[in-house]
Amino acid sequence: MRNPQLNRHGELTHLITTEGIPRDILTHILDTAQTFVPLADRDVKKVPLLRGKSVFNLFFENSTRTRTTFEIAATRLSADVFNLNINASSASKGETLLDTIANLTAMQADIFVVRHEASGAPYLIARHVPPEVHVVNAGDGRHAHPTQALLDMYTIRHFKQDFTNLTVAIVGDVLHSRVARSNIHALTTLGVPEVRAIGPLTLLPGGLDQMGVQTYTDMKEGLRDVDVIIMLRLQNERMRGALLPSSQEYFKHYGLTADKLAYAKPDAIVMHPGPMNRGVEIDSAIADGPQSVILNQVTFGIAVRMAVMSIVAGAST
Amino acid sequence: MTASGLSLPQAEDLYETLRQGVASLIQDLPPEHVHLVGIHSGGAWLAERLHRDLGLPTSLGTLNISFYRDDFDRIGLHPQVEPSDIGFDVADRHLVVVDDVLYTGRTIRAAMNELFDYGRPASIKLVVLIDRGQRELPICADFAAWQFQAPLAENLVLQKSDAGEFTLHIETKEA
Q1: Which residues in chain B have their CB less than 8 angstroms from residue A316's CB?
Q2: Label partner for A261 (CA 20 to 30 A): which of A47, A147, B37, B123?
Q3: Strand runs (DSSP E) across B26-151, as ranges?
Q4: Are β-strands B143-147 and B123-131 bridged in parallel, bridged antiparallel, or unpaired?
């Protein structure tokens, strides 16, 4: 079966997950993003690539930062952007997801940016839109958050150049993290030889070893000699039952502090997808410290989302 | 030799004509306000060499017009070459846009649109190695080293060797 994100010419027409996207397409996205980065220094920070196109931001789950970066990215491509506050509208009146999409498609949408608490919602939408309409997943349930993974890949490439000699550790609540899953697929495809997941057993999902990931419950051991540390947010809102004793206890074992960071390589970079829980998964001194590239991630996120939208919008129909 | 029997001049000879043409085009302008801007890829190679040979005191700019093309809906976004690099303030500067082959004029339209997104230049001039005719927009070069009507079925391609020497080739367009 063809990857549903690719059209019959093998071009990226939707971005639902990093899983199964060939390396050359991932690299094409990163290279394109790189050409968008210098735009920020110009008088006019826009290019006319998506002039006349309509981008609909459909956020069925709250998010300020991701929605805003998508909005900035679409605006810098000269698209018209429409933000729909779904919780307050038709969904609460009982309209089904596909009816909502059919109505918006009838309003000549070109790209849907979708965030949904249910895993698979963007895929369902992608299957039902006409071929000239494109879907970009902005995070679905525990499944995937591909643009976050791509901006993480961009950040890693920016600071480390080559993927093929790196050891990358993903730390914390891997179980609930769509970011972790998307990162693992992207890192593996781009040729990172060693990916580690570090966290308490209750927050490490099964099947990580089948994905080629080594698991550690001892953070110091897991961080030894790594080049890149991706911290994850503790997702209290997705937790059911007692997975953790307390956030203080969690910080003691899995919070990134100077003494734990010392086990990584001296030039290791520290990443976090945000929003951060300071004092829970990361110490403030590290979040604001010299090895932190957390704000670089945010900046690169705009260029990466511009690249994704322009590439899918340019796919032939 | 083109399919129509025309023999191509040597690219290096054309380059020399271009260098002289650009030198006389900018001689009355204040050198500290003149910038060469090459269009990727061929125009950027030419601009780089002109910049060196003319000993210009100002920095060189390059443009990748992919994001300004008018055929995005038809061909999408192709793998990028180098990004645009305009490392100077274009406001009130005299810009000399350099390209290898002037054909429909659409590339130059895109280049001018992009340049105006960096600011408002004092003037823009266009210099090209070859003007092959068949314009689709009201655009003409201030200087062309060689003008002729190329057959529609043929593309003229500038190449640069590792040693930096220019050569011209003809490629037959795919039907």
Answers
A1: 76
A2: A147
A3: 34-39, 61-63, 94-102, 123-131, 143-147
A4: parallel
The H or E element that residue A254 is part of is helix A247-254
Q: How confident is the model at residue A97 (pLDDT cuts 50, 70, 90)?
A: confident
Name which of B81, B82, B113, B117 to mutate to probe chain A: the one with the most chain A Cβ atoms within 10 A of its Cβ. Answer: B117
Whether residue A197 contacts residue A163, with contact meaning beta carbons closer than 8 Å, is answered with no
- Token pair for B13: 């000879």
Nearest CA among B5, B148, B25, B19 for reference residue B96: B25
| A282, A293 Cβ separation under 8 angstroms | no
Q: A7 and A13 in contact (C-beta within 8 Å)?
A: yes
pLDDT exceeds 60 at position A92: yes
Dist. CA A29–CA B71, nearest whole Å: 20
CATH fold group of domain A146-297: Rossmann fold (3.40.50)
In the predicted structure, residue B1 carries a pLDDT above the cut 60: no
CATH topology of domain A23-144+299-313: Rossmann fold (3.40.50)
What is the residue extent of each domain of chain A? Answer: 23-144+299-313, 146-297
Shortest Cα distance, chain B CAs vs residue A42, angstroms = 5
Q: Which of B68, B85, B116 sits opposite A47 (nearest CB)?
A: B68
Separation CA A289–CA A287 (nearest Å): 6
Contacts of B119 (CB under 8 A, 6+ apart): A43, B89, B90, B91
- Domain B11-66+83-172, CATH: 3.40.50.2020
- Nearest CA of chain A to the CA of B88: how many Å? 10
Interface test with B, best of A34, A47, A50, A77 (most B CBs within 10 A): A47
CA distance B45 to chain A (A): 19
pLDDT for A215: 97
Q: Which amino acid is at A105?
A: T
pLDDT score for A234? 85
Chain A partners of B76 at a C-beta cutoff of 8 Å?
A: 11, 311, 313-316
